[in-house]
Write a structure and sequence with these properties.
- By secondary structure, the protein is an alpha+beta fold.
- It contains five helices and ten strands; from the N terminus they run H-H-H-H-H-E-E-E-E-E-E-E-E-E-E.
- It is 20% helix and 35% strand.
- The strands form two sheets. Strands 1-2-3-10-5-8 form a six-stranded antiparallel β-sheet, with no helix packed on it. Strands 4-9-6-7 form a four-stranded antiparallel β-sheet, with no helix packed on it.
- The C terminus is likely disordered.
Length: 186
């Protein structure tokens, strides 16, 4: 983040204003002393005109990018042990992200709307998942899949007594060429 900010010759105050994030949070993020939410990271990425993966992944100029098990970027975690891990991404002018999610019993992860036109696809690998999107609630079991517009308020929840695990793909068209409609979480 510091490198991108300095490339633009922005002060911390300028980035804070553009991202709608406090200067203190930016200082903590640059120093590695904060664990910002995905929404905060997205606001920073948007302000810098970057896609989230460009902000959180190590640069890999190779045409083939491998993320080994355990090497993905953990961008959300809960006290009971839930976590959202960004395991792969691709950028064209569009961005595609692949996530590995685990929600502990009782975990709920709310997501703010993404950029207009965003689509989310998910498949439950184990457990029971409740997805709320566009005012609709859908209960999914292992093997079930769902596609929905990611540019509406949405959330993922585990109503069961066992962890739920699911894969999530997020497609965001033309990220960086226009600003998102507010901050967003997966």
């Amino acid at each position: 983040m510091r490198q991108e900010r300095q490339t633009r010759r922005w002060t911390l105050d300028q980035l804070a204003h553009a991202a709608g994030v406090s200067r203190r949070m930016l200082v903590n993020v640059e120093q590695g002393a904060a664990n910002p939410s995905v929404g905060t990271l997205l606001r920073i990425a948007d302000a810098l005109g970057l896609a989230l993966p460009a902000l959180v992944e190590r640069p890999q100029p190779r045409p083939v990018q491998v993320t080994r098990s355990g090497e993905g970027a953990v961008l959300w975690s809960s006290d009971p042990g839930g976590r959202g891990v960004l395991v792969a991404s691709a950028e064209t002018p569009d961005v595609v992200e692949l996530w590995d999610w685990t929600l502990a019993p009782g975990d709920v992860h709310p997501g703010d709307p993404h950029a207009s036109g965003t689509r989310e696809l998910l498949q439950v690998l184990s457990g029971t998942l409740i997805v709320e999107a566009a005012g609709q609630s859908v209960t999914l079991e292992a093997g079930d899949a769902l596609a929905f517009a990611g540019d509406v308020p949405h959330s993922y929840g585990n109503p069961g007594s066992q962890p739920v695990r699911f894969s999530l793909a997020v497609f965001e068209p033309a990220v960086g060429s226009s600003s998102r409609s507010g901050g967003s979480d997966a």
